Amino acid sequence: MARKKIREYDSKRLLKDHFKRLSGYELPIKSAQVTESTDFNELAEKEPWLLSGKLVVKPDMLFGKRGKSGLVALNLDLAEVAVFVKERLGKEVEMSGCKGPITTFIVEPFIPHNEEFYLNIVSERLGCSISFSECGGIEIEENWDKVLLDVNLSQIFIGKEFLSLIGSSFTSETRAPLVATLPLEIKREIEEFIKSVFALFQDLDFTFLEMNPFTLVNGKPYPLDMRGELDDTAAFKNFKKWGNIGFPMPFGRVMSSTESFIHGLDEKICVIREEGVFVKNLGCGCRSEQCLSSWLWFGFDFMGGCSVEAQRMISLRSKGWT
User: Fold this and answer.
1) Within a 10 A sphere around the Cβ of 250, how many other Cβ atoms?
2) Which of 175, 208, 205, 168 is nearest to 189 (CA)?
3) Where in the sequence is the domain holding 68, given as residue range(s)?
């Protein structure tokens, strides 16, 4: 597993694109991405909702504390959003000791709200942990010990032995501790939302997903702020679901010229023979060549695997006995 952070825009795009398939109803999430190349007139034609109400704009750069740093603007129209972006695009900022330019923003509808909830799902070595609180929107990570004492934060853990059977194991009884303190009028809705988000978490190979906060709009959960990480080693099976996903560099990290050159070469590698068979070589150094030569010398049945002789020789050579 390789955990790679994705932008908030992509996290919400994946949630919107796949939530209905897994839950039966659609989340009315609206968001737009703004970069140096964005033409606001063209963007408004593509996303008409940008002209129909007040907006929120903030950097989408894989760092937090945007509000505290004066990088979030609320209740703006599109013209004011354009001014806000122009004043900050390309400007260097320092966040948690890391410096870098702001290159990407996310624009969303401004949603007045009174309720804020917290949801966090993390993939761990032995399973997944799910945390929920009806007191979202606070600095939960920085005040974790205080939160556990003073806030209604509920947590459950689902072992990896149950993850493949999540439809049957993630029952109402399993979810009950998460929503035990919620008022009855919203309890069922939020419980079903958590169930659907966890199904999406599993289906799309997220390794981390956080909504802090999400609120209720017309009785339905709606994420206001969201973070996500994907297992990029699962790209081979999710490329259609993920779509045009990007894995940006951590904020403040700049590739050297050599790294950029190698990255460019790596992007150009592709498979042109779909019927070909690829075998991951788990050896290292000269052992890799020895294992490969054993396959070639003793035979490899692409339908049934290595011959008995090849399996024996590979076993011996991998242990350094030949």
Assistant:
1) 12
2) 175
3) 28-112
